Amino acid sequence: MNDIASLRKSDRSRIIRRAVNSADELKSVSSLQMGPPWAKFLVAGYSGLLLGALLAGSAMVLGWLTGLWPPVKLPVILPLVTAGIVYSSFEVWRRGPSRAAKAQRRRDLDSGFVDELVLGDVVAAKGFRDPEHGSLAYFLKLADGRVFFDYFDGEMAEPGWEKAIPNIPVEKHPKRALHLIYGTASGSLLMTRMSGEPFKPESVSLLKGNTRYWPSCGSFRKTAWDDIERQFAAR
Asked: Domain range for residue 69?
């Protein structure tokens, strides 16, 4: 869970309620998604193409058995692939935030206040790039041994980022303080950011290509620090 209730009691006692300010890039829609904002559409597209290909392949076999193939090749394939993409996109939308969750998010945004927890003891970081667009995520290690994961730069990287994966620009380096910002109505994590002294990450890797292996954003992980690359890095 990415909410206040899932925090340690000692962390909850340190939360401060304050007014929203210009540094709070609060999203108007939703709960956190798996990966950056565009990731769910990437999943829908790939799933749709796969489903459409399976449907088209089934139609080809049926056509071959009935003697109707190949004259109906294109008229059959295109609608089936399109149907697969449409169905997958609908499923991504259907499984998104509920009406109740969206209503709570609106109340969070309309309140003008947020609950903020500052963890100023980040001692190490490991960076990961999304393999499709180069968006930057970090595993952050706190002084008490806990590990936190989130995307801190969800935008697509500049062209050519693949040739310089380990070389993160200084302005995108991790920093020593982690800010967790929660909604006052929902208690859900709205955003994360870092502040303080920047430092160089221990390593920078590519995430595994299959999105089901990606860790959940904005969450504390039980993964051992030395085991992170084995679990999440592409080989």
From this structure: 39-94
My answer on whether 107 and 189 are in the same domain is yes
Q: How far apart are the first and last CA of the chain?
A: 29
pLDDT (tens digit per residue) in 91-116:
555 555 567 777 887 888 889 999 99
Question: Are residues 85 and 14 located together in one domain of the fold?
Answer: no
Q: Determine which of 10-24, 32-46, 193-207, 221-235 has the lowest per-residue pLDDT on average.
A: 32-46
Please check whether residues 142 and 219 belong to one and the same domain.
yes
- DSSP SS3 for 226: helix
Helix and strand element counts for the chain (H, E)? 5, 9
The residue with tokens 């869970």 is 1
Q: Which residues contact 230 (CB under 8 A, 6 or more apart)?
A: none
Asked whether the bond before 201 is cis by omega within 30 degrees of 0, the reply is no
Count CB neighbours of 22 within 10 A. 5
Query: In the structure encoding, which two tokens stand for residue 78, read together?
Result: 């295109």
Same domain, 27 and 51: no
User: Is the same domain home to 88 and 104?
Assistant: no
Instruction: Measure the CA dihedral 76/82/88/93, to 10°.
Output: -150
